[in-house]
Amino acid sequence: MDIPVSDPGPVKESGSSFRCNYCDTDLVHKIAQLFLPGLATACMDNTTGDLFRSPSSVAVAMRKEMIDYLTHRSETFVAESVVGGDGLPDEVKADSDDLGEIISVFIDDFTSSKRNLFSRVSGWVLSESREDKIDDFMQEMEMNNFWSLDRREAIAEVLLKNIDIKGTYHCTVKFDTEQQLEEHRGNCSFRPVYCTNEGCNARFSAVHMVNHDLICSFKVLPCEQGCSQNLMRREMDRHCITVCPMKLVNCPFYQVGCESAFPQCTLEKHCSEFLQSHLLYVLQVIYKHQASVEDVQQRVQLLEKSQSLSELSEALDVRSLALAIKEQEARTKKLERDFSKVG
After folding, report:
1. 189 neighbors 207 (Cβ within 8 angstroms)
2. Containing H/E element for 18?
């Protein structure tokens, strides 16, 4: 039988005090996620090699046993910890605040206790097929909603409160009146809240609001590269490497010698400002060993003085500039021939 999932509201203790019952929802969810794999493992190891029973046939009874076992272990955890008989590995004891790991040890102990004789004496526990069958059975239970997440989270809350002796992950504040408690619950750091970023349905304790906002994929942010757009964090990388006008690009004349890099939106400005050096690079490629450096530099100066300078400055890549240079030189040669005929 599952523990009820409804919010019990304020908890009145013996005497006249009231205690807030909110828990860290992130940790509760983490613990709840451990239950189904644990149950699937226990059912599979308990029925392997048994011709008369299947994992599904023992799942209901095994779930109840598991809940009772975990509840008992959590209730006796504090006393066992004091006398050193909690059965936890040394690495878990060293980090006693990792309550999820403590519950995981409890679940491992339960599943180990449910292995039948075949599972214990054969190589079944170490086989790859065991893991595959456990995964398959777990998926089957999920598809059939055999043990719903909300019910698992209700159980996780009980276990968490039992072992969180420091009150790190659940609220332990007491109040004299129910009204005082209700006022507190509206501001409790463990109260459940939803992300306010449009499109995000994440639910978490208020204490995690800032941390969630720092990683929420739906958070709208200014472009990291400084363009005018605002976009969701999950779209940032694609935007920055594809369509962002401020993404850094190599100069289109890189292949002939220009090693500049600049925001894509300043391409025309760069080509205009560095026209002289681009002309020099392209002319050196066109003439290769046919002209000296001095000759090439003179040609650059002539081109800069030509009436087609604006046409040359509009060339934004090697091919376009090379064609513009050749057209300009062809016109110049034609003019020279025309003048020689007149003379």
Report:
1. yes
2. strand 18-19
- Residue 5 structure tokens: 């999932």
Contacts of 57 (CB under 8 A, 6+ apart): 47
d(Cα 322, Cα 314) in Å, to the nearest integer? Answer: 12
Which pLDDT does position 93 carry in this prediction?
A: 46
How far apart are the C-alpha atoms of 269 and 263, rounded to whole Å?
10
Q: How many CB atoms lie within 10 A of CB 69?
A: 17
For residue 265, pLDDT over 60 is answered with yes
Do 151 and 3 touch, CB atoms closer than 8 A? Answer: yes
Neighbours of 259 (CB within 10 A): 8
For 98-126, the pLDDT digits (tens) are 899 999 999 999 999 999 988 887 777 77
Q: How distant is the alpha carbon of residue 229 from its chain centre?
A: 22
Alpha helices by DSSP H, 170-292: 178-185, 209-215, 233-241, 267-273, 275-287
**For residues 272, 275, 276 and 281, what is the CA-based torsion angle, rounded to 10 degrees?**
160
Residues 67, 68, 73, 74: is their CA dihedral positive or negative? positive
Question: Reduced to 3 states, what is the DSSP secondary structure of residue 321?
Answer: helix
Lowest-confidence segment of 143-147, 210-214, 321-325 by average pLDDT: 321-325
Q: Name, in order, each residue with C-beta under 8 angstroms of 112's C-beta and a sequence gap of 6 or more.
A: none
Side-chain-facing half-sphere of 126: CA atoms under 13 Å = 4
Do 268 and 258 contact (CB within 8 A), yes or no? no
State the Cα–Cα distance between residues 259 and 263, nearest whole angstrom: 14
How many whole angstroms separate alpha carbon 131 and alpha carbon 18? 46
Find the farthest-apart pair of alpha carbons in the chain and give their distance in angstroms, rounded. Answer: 121
Question: What is the model's pLDDT at position 82?
Answer: 60
pLDDT of 45 over the 50 cut: yes
Distances (CA, A) of 161 to 139, 169, 224, 321: 29, 8, 42, 74
Q: Which residues pair with 91 in a beta bridge?
A: none
**CA-closest candidate to residue 32, choices 132, 121, 142:** 142
